[in-house]
Design a protein that fits this description.
By secondary structure, this protein is mostly helical. It has 2 helices and no strands. It starts with a helix and ends with a helix.
Length: 64
């Protein structure tokens, strides 16, 4: 049961990070928004996941 909550929590962090990472216009803004959203949901680990998600979304939207 505890493992289910960990998986659900991680999925929530990833979903929040991906959805909020779309806010902003630069890679730094998107990474920061994702990190803040992840930190709210999952603490320090969530911040890292959210920041990575924000960066990935930014790179996918602006392939240069």
């Amino acid at each position: 049961m505890v493992r289910l909550f960990k998986v659900a929590g991680f999925a929530a962090v990833v979903a929040a990070g991906l959805s909020l990472a779309a806010c902003g216009t630069t890679t730094e803004q998107k990474a920061a928004t994702g990190a803040v959203a992840g930190a709210v949901v999952g603490g320090p680990v969530g911040a890292a996941v959210g920041g990575a998600a924000g960066t990935a979304v930014s790179k996918a939207q602006n392939p240069r």
